[in-house]
Amino acid sequence: DGGITQSPKYLFRKEGQNVTLSCEQNLNHDAMYWYRQDPGQGLRLIYYSQIVNDFQKGDIAEGYSVSREKKESFPLTVTSAQKNPTAFYLCASSILYRGAEAFFGQGTRLTVV
Amino acid sequence: GQQLNQSPQSMFIQEGEDVSMNCTSSSIFNTWLWYKQDPGEGPVLLIALYKAGELTSNGRLTAQFGITRKDSFLNISASIPSDVGIYFCAGPPPSNTGKLIFGQGTTLQVKP
Fold it and tell me: Across the interface, which of A41, A59, A90 has its CB nearest the CB of B42?
């Protein structure tokens, strides 16, 4: 089935450790996005990519890094520089035109202890 | 960053009631998208609107693209318990950066 797969669903890490969240899509979409969601709040854009080997910072990029080596994959690394990393992380993809509908993965809930 | 303003922030209604929520922007939008997020899941697209004044239905859901292009409305008729969740509006900002921005969401609770 076509779609976006995020893994793992739940992730626990110790404070100070880097952690990488996986996002894979087989929809042949050019654009991919990472959002962060905190309890009771909306979606905030971390990074987005419109083409392989290129990406742009969103509104809250500090403490995060991404790569886009393949069209299908857009992993997000939460670094130790992120001061409050515990959150629900959502990956999305879309075709590349303004106003395109984004399709979301199931999300990864990261808890840092 | 630019935001879309959604209201109300939350609603607690009785099963069978109709629901209305809206989304406004200070800038003109060419597309309005409405998503629903179930607890612990990713948002799912409900309705997409592409033309000012457009009225589109999806089952019990009806959404409208405001004539000023600065707002959109979502109505749910005869609510049922599975309507519970967070409803988000979204759209591309005028800056044409290729990204979507989202409203803060409207949390809906339905009492059986």
Answer: A90
